[in-house]
Amino acid sequence: MSGTSLDGVDAALVDFPPVGTPACLATHYQPYPDDLKAEILALHEPGENEIARAVRVANRLAREYA
Question: For the CA atoms of 43, 47, 48, 52, what is the dihedral angle to 10 degrees?
């Protein structure tokens, strides 16, 4: 998650040389599917099976980051 916007995954490929200035080689943005964003937002409200819902969202986020 990038910041708190819940909009998607941001990635950057950066070269960190032993000496000198780091260089950004590439960037990528992948928006979250609407249903995943809704599941994340739903965790802010109390409800049944909160732990199970949190685990499900965590697993989905892991797949998005992979």
Answer: 10
Q: Confirm whether 1 is domain-assigned.
A: no
pLDDT in tens, 8-62: 998 999 999 999 999 999 999 999 999 999 999 999 888 889 999 999 999 999 9
Whether this prediction's pTM lies above 0.90 is answered by: no
In a domain, 2, yes or no: no
